[in-house]
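Narrative of activities, Objective 1.

The group set out to show that a structural description can be obtained from nothing but a protein's sequence at a throughput compatible with the screening campaign. Below is one input-output pair from the validation batch, recorded exactly as produced.
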Amino acid sequence: MFFERFKQDNTRQQSRPTVKKVSELIDKTSHEQKKYLSLMLVPSYSTGKTRSLRIPRGVFHGMLIGMLVFSAVVTGFYLRSNHFMRMAQELYQERDEIAETLAETQHMAEVVQSDLINSMIQVYERYSEVQQNTQSRLENQAREHQTVLDGLWDQVDEFEQLIRELEEDQQAVLEGLSSRADKIPPIASLLNQLEESREYLLAQFERENVSEQPDMVGIGLLSAGTGFLSYTDKVAASEAELQLRITTLAQELTLQRKLLDDLNTHSQRIRTYLYNYPTLWPVTGRISSDFGWRRRPLGGGSEHHNGVDIPARTGTPIRAAGGGTVTFSGWQNGYGQTVIIDHGGGITTAYTHNSRNNVEVGHRVTRGQIIAYVGSTGRTTGAHLHYEVRINNAAVDPIPFMVEH
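Output recorded for this entry:
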């Protein structure tokens, strides 16, 4: 028994693979060996063979650098996507506010139209009651019915007055926009488009309603700026005349809703220029240096002056010439403390030599908001504001834009 166990142990030891040391597998004196990195693969079971894997050093380093570059690219895309998501949220918020305002206006118009329809139904119901009653009560019912008609006439007059006020409000909006057209050129083109659209709606309304109601004598169609022709004798007015007037009023209300929707649609485009177009003087004062070529204030020779200089005391507030987004706020060589605002449409304004800035990059500013304070930082001979207007990054003369204080 002992001899058989000894023989089995001896046989197991002879069949076990010989494991060499790492130092014996690597030729330390070989030049080729230094170009590779060796990985030893040792099996977990005793009967397996030990293997070595050689990886060129250049491939290993390339894989390491590739992993780092890939991580940097993924991080960059992640940060960029967050930026676009924030911008999208702001746009969605502005869209919701506009939609809410439009919904309120449409709801008001629907309420007015509903009241008119309810009033007309009341007239028909009263008239049916008169016909169904006996002759003995006809006179009393006629007097009551006349009272109702008088009340309806008053309601119709009230609704007509509301429509007139709605027209006046729209006219006031148009006049307000027209007053800015000479100061903000893009508004003039948009106003022409709005006027053409309103004329088309009015012409379409007249064609449809004149063809449907050729006998509307004495009432007249309400077009922009004219109004309804009032009846002088309401006591003698018949129910047919009242019905005709209510029908006309309902049609006019439909027209006013279309005109109001059209005005809102065009106003959204115009309002962008009203809020953002840079027409304000950023600082009150006189212009000491115009746009164009001039002698260098520091040193000899001449240079092109890309803006205008407005002297002011240090600490004087500088206001945004129009609404927009701050794209730069900090130090620029020669300009010192600088603020740059993007107003949309390729138009930007720059405010330089500031003593300190009051806004940061990404801030949304409104027309007239204080964005910085006058100073003398950068290359300058004294406290003043250097103001520039750029269109598609090309400097233009700011004076044609500076039309409002």
